[in-house]
Amino acid sequence: MNKHYTEEVRSQVITRYKNKESVINSSKETAIPRSTIYRWINDYTAKNSTHPNVKNKEIKELERKVEKLQTMLTIIYELGISVNPPLKEKLNAMAPLYGKYNVHWLYEASQRPHSNNNYRTPDAKEAEYYSKNST
What's the pTM value of the predicted model, to 2 decimals? Predict the structure, then answer.
């Protein structure tokens, strides 16, 4: 059934979405199909995006990756272990963090990063940090 909705209704639904209300709730309360609401959201995002070629789904995926990386950095700082410690030292440092973070994230954060930065010499601040925290 093809219904025509006013701009006011569209605007209200978009506002609810921007206020973090789920599409499912909006759909149930307004009796507007979810597919229609998603289309409005995509149209709104494309129209108001500073990057018109980037899709809403891609942005959400990047936001999840950023959140994961920020959590992993927090874990690394909380571990307070040297750059390449023995396994026993890693496990002892991680023990208080079990239950606070996802086990897989703890594992990833405790692993040596796979980048060219592994082979660089730490700067003075890093060297001081690791010398204080490795004892």
Answer: 0.39
- 45: helix, strand or coil: helix
Residue 33, both tokens: 């199909």
Of 20, 19, 22, 26, the C-alpha closest to 5 is 26
Cβ neighbors of 73 (< 8 A, separation 6 or more) are 109
SS3 23: helix
pLDDT in tens, 61-119: 888 899 888 887 887 777 776 667 777 887 788 888 888 887 887 777 777 554 444 44
Interval 24-58: pLDDT, tens = 999 999 999 999 999 998 888 877 766 666 677 77
Q: Side chain identity at 134, as an amino acid letter? A: S
Alpha carbon of 11 to those of 1, 3, 29: distances in Å?
A: 21, 16, 15
Dihedral of CA 103/109/110/115: which sign?
positive
Q: How many CA atoms lie within 13 A of 79 on its CB side?
A: 29
CA distances from 116 to 15, 69, 76, 110, 120 (A): 45, 18, 18, 17, 7
